Description:
The chain is α/β, with parallel strands linked by helices.
Amino acid sequence: MRCALATVVVLATAPTPARAEEPTPGLSQSIAPDQPLVNGRATLTAGHVDIGPRYVDNRWSVLIHDGTQARPVWRKPDETLLRVSDAALQTVPDDPAYAFLGVDAGKRVYVVPQTQNQEVVWLGWNTQDPRVMQTVDRGVTLTLLGVRGPGTLTTYLQSGNFAPPKPLWRSVDSKAQPFWAEVNTHTHANWVFSEPGIYLVAVQMWADLITGGKASATGTLRFAVGDGTSTDEAFAAKADIPVPVDQASPGGDRAEAGEPAGNSPTLLLMALTGAAVLLAVGLVLLLLRGRAARRRAERERDTQSEGRP
């Protein structure tokens, strides 16, 4: 009985990804299925940029949607440098609500803002590729796998001026940091870099498919933070970021469309079925024990009644 209850408690309290709600109005967009994937290095210094999943040669991939020009295109993360200039410098407010940044109040940090600054690259994410919307069941999980850089990276959402900030990713945390994005959503957030320099940010995107399989892929974002950071060195930097065990995809990197990934739904169903059986057995035992106790009590009462004068 105790084992059954413990199993149910574990299943009911298992961690689930945070939800990345769309906090800023005016972010509606649609992505045409024929937008090209462009090869070759590109440095993006300002304008609209998203990361997002897309199928390339029938494989699930993490790409960068470049909307900085009149004609949007997709780019590979390894070939794309996101340059965060000194125009992004802001002062950390003297407010306990921002203690999660891990930076002293009054210090200057580099911020890619949630609300667009025309002088700074504007980075968000979308789940709006047409084939993604056709094949994904409900939404996509985005997970921070690791960060290499001279300082810390924190990504957070804040809805309005008076709403508390909602941290999504913190490079100082070693635990899994997934968040959930519904299909056909487009969101921007605040990206805070504590120091200038080169940052390599490994992310993973995976989803359950309506076919019953899973799709998963990883990508590494390249940032050159600060005007003095070398573009050539940023492109040459190696993204040797180990993936913590608790941050790995449940089914591994399954990139083929519709490919089954592991038995996690089956295992969950088996666990739930086993827990239900154990609970049922426990209830039956309790009922039988209760009946036996009542019978003993009745016999003792009858014996006492017969012994009375």
